[in-house]
Amino acid sequence: MIALLAMAAAIASSPRLGVAEGTCRPNESGPAIRITVEGLSHRTGTLRAELYPVNDDDFLEDDNKLIAAGKAFRRSVAPVPAAGPVILCLRAPSPGAYALAVIHNPSGGHGFSLLRDGVGFAGNPYLGHAKPHAIEAAINVGQDVTPTLIVMNYRRGLFSFGPLGRR
């Protein structure tokens, strides 16, 4: 339970930091991630994709601290579409390995509620009772757009997270 509370505190960050750097723009070249999101609990609210350094000390760390320390952090925020595929685009600072998290807030807020919000990571690691290690949520971003699929996880039972429909 303590690990889940720590995860919730870590991803309840300032909603605007890193957005200008993380926003994809039409016809812009360079390293980015095209994130297809599956398994949403609701077609409401917002999705937040966040890019972190691939180490456990910085993964899901407060965005203010990462930016102040000059470390890699990017964020893209988008409304959940009412229908059709759910795709986000997130710019990366440069090609390389990063840890990637996607947060679904069905009510559209920017915090994280263990009771209702969903979370997914690159590589779709098993979550269970704790956040994954940064290396388990890592993605290698190339020179151009790198595609990935994220399956969302929501609270199941008292203390664990998992994809909807799987027990």
General description of the model:
With 167 residues, this protein is mainly β. Helices cover 12% and strands 34% of the residues. The chain has one domain. The chain is built from 3 helices and 10 strands.
List keywords for this structure.
3-stranded mixed sheet, mainly beta, 167 residues, 3 helices, 5-stranded antiparallel sheet, 10 strands
> Can you summarize the main beta sheet?
5 strands, antiparallel
The shape is globular
Mean pLDDT: 85
Q: DSSP strand (E) fraction?
A: 25-35%
- According to DSSP, the number of beta strands is 10
Unreliable stretches (pLDDT < 50, length at least 5) are: none
> Could you give the distance between the termini?
19 Å
Structural class: mainly beta
Please, how many domains? 1
Q: Describe the oligomeric state of these chains in a short phrase.
A: single chain
Q: What share of the residues lie within helices?
A: 10-25%
Order of helices and strands: HHEEHEEEEEEEE
Number of helices: 3
Q: Specify Rg, calculated over alpha carbons.
A: 15 Å
How do the helices and strands line up, and which of them pair or pack?
Blueprint: H1 2-11, H2 19-22, E1 32-38, E2 46-52, H3 63-68, E3 74-79, E4 86-91, E5 96-105, E6 118-121, E7 138-141, E8 145-151, E9 154-156, E10 160-162
Parallel strand pairs: 1-8
Antiparallel strand pairs: 1-4, 2-3, 2-5, 5-6, 5-7, 9-10
Pfam families: DUF2141
InterPro entries: DUF2141 (IPR018673)
